[in-house]
Amino acid sequence: MIGIIGAMSVEVENLIAVMTDKSTQTISEVVYYSGKIENIDCVVAKCGVGKVASAICAQTMILNYHPGAVINVGVAGGIGENIHIGDIVVSSGLVQHDMDTTAIGDEKGLISGLNIVIVPASSRLVDLVVSTAKQIYGQGVHVGVIATGDQFISSGDRLKEIAREFGASACEMEGGSIAQVCYINHVDFVVIRAISDNANEAANIDFAAFAISSAHKTAELIMKILPSI
Ligand code: ADE
Q: Looking at the 3D structure of the chain, how many domains does it have?
């Protein structure tokens, strides 16, 4: 069973549309669609935006469906001059950029308890996603740290800060919390994001223009990956 989580409808709607043998279960207001995609058993959920909503969804999915791997799909703001709208960023690891206990002597982004800043994604899944994405798209496929926080980033200054502190290639609002939940449950995960904006002052306009096409791109990629997972 493969778990697939997206924050918004556009990020999961095409996956739900092609699912066969579909059944649904609603838990804590999230609908879990289980069935087959490309003949692989999957559970797909739209978790809602942000770290709390996505953590609730990931934990609930793991406890109820026992997925062997969890994939977080959707859009992100690109960080860095070589990351363009429409590009794919596959997570080497996830950081929560708004986790900050530096005032009591910790490293920025440290997840207390786990004692790590970056939660590593499954290298097997990263390699599989990257090789499939390169086969389909050729260029514009990147592997890097993805930075998560409860903020839509739309400022060059904030963006540069996240890049400097964590060397991140993309920013979004759910991957880091899903990563933390998977990590403590010993479930393999990877985050696959297509860039909808560059997290700068034009991010709101670009997001409105490109979120749908970029979100659909990650769903298309998932369908190509599933048979080899
Ligand atoms: N998701 C897509 N674009 C984003 C941005 N600029 N900040 C946070 N999450 C995003």
A: 1
